[in-house]
Specification:
384 residues; mainly alpha; Na+/H+ antiporter like fold; two-stranded antiparallel sheet; 17 helices
Length: 384
């Protein structure tokens, strides 16, 4: 009997019900924040001047605060202690992590680079912002998609830990390569939108490094003093909504600053959405097909497909704002990222569960979905 035969009675129709209310309506909250920002910019036309008086570099202090608040809960959720605790279930850890890291860090950025130049060749700011989204690997929200799709929780958690740590080093190098070096080698006209490696590195160190250290120390101290159950089932749900509040606060300010430009070109959001939509779909299919071709059981295939298809839009927004400023087209492209990613990946959860029932899957050796981890969908506001 296959895994699908034994588990086909799962209530796939309750996918949305298994998401927290904050996560379930995330696209709506983002749309309302966009509208609220446009209204605020219209009612308070001097807001941008006021924010510039509190500016350090290219980021105003209120927006910087929103970005840090947005990142901290995400990184406090990461299960750092799971790194290196992978047991053997017959799938082959080397094969699984090898293909996952290849798709995430080689194929994903290259694909987004290609899509950005195909669809946004004459829109350098939006093109750059879309590439920035493609470079940021997912570090939290993937646990939600993986969990409700009945994927391998342990492997997804280890990948989240690795991505969170590796991004501190890799993001700036990839940003410099895809935004400056590669276009020059290919003879593309960047129209002046080139980025120095230190500009990206500085932003990553501030908006990923600081909350990463804070999140790690919070988890380390919290688990030592109160235990893992208390930390994950009581503390995390309390701080988790801060990510959404920080995100919405940042979006309101960004759209208030960019209100005039956005209202004069309302189809720009649609223009940015096209390469993002193609990217998420192609990456998920690539991950799922790779798992299938390599003979992985369903849980590992699902974990692979969702980890390679998801992106850390909080980091992408922080980098776009930190390097190019809140009024930039790059920042707008970063904001559009979660607006597209969330509904697309919810739809792909349904696809994964349908394929789980329809296809024959090899038996995993032992149960891998019974690790001590609370349902990801039960922690409100699990973004990232």
């Amino acid at each position: 009997m296959t895994v699908a035969d034994r588990s086909g009675s799962a209530d796939d129709g309750a996918v949305l019900a298994r998401l927290s209310r904050l996560d379930r309506y995330l696209p709506l909250w983002i749309a309302l924040a966009m509208a609220g920002g446009l209204l605020l910019g219209t009612l308070v036309p001097s807001l941008n001047d006021g924010l510039e008086t509190l500016q350090v570099g290219t980021v105003s202090l209120p927006i910087a605060l929103g970005l840090l608040v947005m990142m901290y809960p995400v990184l406090a959720k990461v299960r750092y202690e799971d790194l290196g605790r992978m047991s053997d279930d017959g799938v082959g850890n080397g094969r699984f992590f090898g293909v996952s890291l290849f798709l995430s860090w080689i194929v994903g950025p290259a694909l987004m680079f290609a899509l950005a130049w195909i669809f946004l060749a004459d829109q350098p700011a939006y093109r750059t912002g879309v590439i920035i989204v493609g470079l940021a690997r997912c570090i939290a929200m993937v646990l939600v998609w993986n969990d409700i799709a009945l994927g391998d929780r342990e492997r997804a958690a280890v990948l989240v830990v690795f991505n969170a740590i590796f991004q501190v080093v890799a993001y700036a190098l990839l940003g410099y390569f895809y935004l400056t070096l590669l276009p020059g080698w290919l003879g593309f006209d960047t129209q002046g939108f080139e980025v120095g490696i230190w500009e990206v590195a500085r932003t990553v160190l501030i908006f990923l490094g600081i909350p990463l250290v804070a999140g790690y120390l919070t988890r380390l101290i919290g688990i030592r003093r109160r235990g893992r159950d208390w930390y994950e089932q009581r503390f995390i749900p309390r701080i988790a909504p801060l990510t959404l509040y920080g995100l919405l606060f940042t979006i309101v300010l960004l759209f208030a600053i960019q209100g005039e430009e956005i209202t004069s070109q309302p189809l720009d959001v649609v223009l940015i959405a096209v390469p993002l939509l193609v990217y998420f779909a192609v990456m998920w299919v690539a991950g799922f097909a790779s798992g299938r071709l390599m003979g992985f059981p369903y849980p590992q295939t699902a974990a692979l497909s969702f980890t390679v298809a998801s992106n850390d839009f909080e980091l992408a927004i922080a980098v776009a704002v930190g390097v190019f400023g809140a009024a930039s087209g790059q920042a707008l492209a970063g904001v559009v990222g979660p607006l597209i990613e969330v509904p697309v990946l919810i739809a792909l959860v349904y696809v994964a569960l349908w394929l789980r029932r329809r296809l024959a899957w090899p038996e995993p050796r032992g149960s891998r979905n019974t690790v001590d981890q609370p349902p990801a969908a039960s922690a409100a506001g699990t973004l990232g």
